[in-house]
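Dear colleagues,

As part of the handover before I leave the project, I'm documenting each prediction I ran so the next person doesn't have to rerun anything. This entry is a single chain, and its sequence is reproduced below.
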Amino acid sequence: MPVYLDNAATSFPKPPGVAEAVTTAIGTIGGSPGRGAHRHARQAMSIMKECRAKAALVLGVSDPDRVIFTGNATESLNVVLKGFLRPGDRVVISGMEHNSVVRPLQRISAQGVAYVISPRGSCEEIDMAAFETMVATKPRLAVMVHASNVNGALMPVDRAAEICARHGVPLLLDAAQSAGVQPILAEARGLGMVACSGHKSLLGPAGVGLLYVRPDLEVSQLMEGGTGSRSEDFNQPEFCPDRYESGTPNLPGLAGLSAGIDFILREGLERIREHELGLATILENKLSEISGVKVLSPGVRGIGTISFVAGSMNAADIGFILDEAFEIAVRAGLHCAPLAHRTLGTFPEGTVRVSPGYSTTEEEIEYFLKSLRSILDKGRR
């Protein structure tokens, strides 16, 4: 039986209603939001507004216009890192960050932006005393992933936000993995910016992302163009969200994202989280019973993602056999997060990553475990 356990890459299958919403947007709505006064354009704008309002609920933002639509979490992160930082600025990041943070910083480091990596503590993924020492030096920005895409670790965001607020340093939260599973609480936590994807735990289709920027922070847009507003002006509008949303939006993607968030709001964040963390507990416990398997257990688990290594057997080989022989989809390697793997001691080989979703069943987990045992048993002969 085909089993999909790669929800950290993108969620699948999508909930009922997501594909229908995408199809309806493509097949029956011919307008572009803000580009006309006819009924098709009005319907398109209605979809966009509804999605923005629902996204604001998920992010914990009172003003939906502060929620900006992007193409993905990577674009959202690039907007902040390249639109907020200037030559001479310093940035503090955690040692668990994704390449969507590290690579933009690496590029702009050539322009005089320096970044430093907060070290790992003895038990947790981040040494918060060291983090506070670094933040106390008044960097321009601090960046922290909410939940690791490698081992599911929940970062100490509340403490980080309090430290950053006390020292007057904005905190950029990478919620690509956590939005839809963990409460984001952007305003309650006083976060400076939040970036997340729409196609992971928010259960929407590919090609949609979200960005929140606190009103008191100046972040330049990456591009300019048509917004459907202030068309008489050669200059880009200064108000949100138009300042950041040039060009025709991905209406089918936003319709699908709106349906995905509807599903989350109906089911409830707590119920979704309990299901995924429950499966992760089963996985972690039973994997730990298999000889030669080492699970990268986090100090605090935030999402269902599990990473493990299996003795001398290559992670890529395990992933390939699971797919070819058992029709089980996992991900093997570095998961676009070599910095996190360096922190966890699994660079350069990487790990096998198993990421159940809300639709994953215990029977599928048992089938995966049985298949993995079979692979490892044969490998020992």
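Residues 39-59 form the longest helix (21 residues). The radius of gyration is 21 Å.

All the best with the project,
I.
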